[in-house]
From TrEMBL:
Species assigned in the record: Trogon melanurus (Black-tailed trogon)
Underlying gene: Gnptg
Limits of the DMAP1-binding domain: 117-216
Protein's name according to its UniProt entry: GNPTG phosphotransferase
Coiled-coil residues: none
PANTHER family: N-ACETYLGLUCOSAMINE-1-PHOSPHOTRANSFERASE SUBUNIT GAMMA, N-LINKED OLIGOSACCHARIDE PROCESSING
This protein's record includes keyword Disulfide bond: yes
Matches recorded under InterPro entries: DMAP1-bd, Gtb1-like, Man6P_isomerase_rcpt-bd_dom_sf, MRH_dom, OS9-like_dom
Sequence ranges assigned to domain MRH in this UniProt record: 10-112
PROSITE patterns, alphabetized: DMAP1_BIND, MRH
Annotated GO CC locations: Golgi apparatus
Keywords: Disulfide bond, Signal, Transferase
MF terms (GO), sorted A to Z: transferase activity
């Protein structure tokens, strides 16, 4: 995300409403503590830093997910970033059960370009985005196709959580890249040949016949 926001890391901001104290620690977590003398007063996590909320190619908020369990799901919180004179947690609500909404004011987002996604990307991903823009302009892809490419770019940049299928795809890609050069392939082949020879020796020591040849 935007590098200038990293100066908020390691700091925490609190907000007290009624009998609850909320604490937001950017890039870390959101917690809630019940300010009461009850023996079972609630104190727990409303979400841990997960990913950005991106709208209109702009960082508009932070998602804190996988908080304490709540009925059938985990608590989660969306933190809205708005321009303000100082860094402060200004408002907290619970729009739906176990899903919280926090408004965080900070002067760090007051500049109109402070939350743009494009400048935070690597050159390669910026080029990918430029190509997508061109394809959309030339009407070679639909608006939906364009959004899909952007989502992939954001996932690749680590701004959004990749879906499980994407993770599997990533792993498979890593495996297939093991032999991207002839050198690597030759090296691996020699290593495997050694292993096969060792295993054949073990088999023959135990009087077990080995069927097959080295090429296999």
């Amino acid at each position: 995300g935007p590098a200038h926001l990293f100066r908020l890391a390691g700091k925490c901001f609190s907000f007290v409403e009624s009998t609850y104290k909320y604490e937001f620690c950017p890039f870390h977590n959101v917690t809630q503590h019940e300010q009461t003398f009850r023996w079972n007063a609630y104190s727990g996590i409303l979400g841990i830093w997960h990913e950005w909320e991106i709208d209109n190619n702009t960082f508009v908020g932070m998602w804190m997910r996988e908080g304490d369990s709540c009925e059938t799901k985990n608590r989660e919180t969306k933190v809205h970033l708005v321009c303000g004179k100082s860094n402060k947690l200004a408002y907290v609500s619970e729009p739906s059960t176990c899903v919280y909404s926090l408004t965080f004011e900070t002067p760090l987002v007051c500049h109109p370009h402070s939350l743009l996604v494009y400048p935070t990307l690597t050159e390669a991903l910026q080029r990918k985005w430029d190509e997508a823009e061109q394809l959309l302009y030339d009407e070679l892809i639909t608006e939906q196709g364009y959004k899909k490419i952007l989502k992939e770019i954001f996932e690749e940049a680590g701004l959004l959580e990749a879906t499980e299928e994407k993770e599997v795809e990533k792993q498979n890609k890593k495996i297939s890249l093991e032999f991207e050069t002839v050198e690597k392939c030759s090296k691996e082949y020699k290593q495997l040949s050694k292993e096969i020879k060792t295993l054949k020796d073990v088999l023959s020591r135990h009087g077990i016949a080995y069927k097959g040849n080295l090429g296999e």
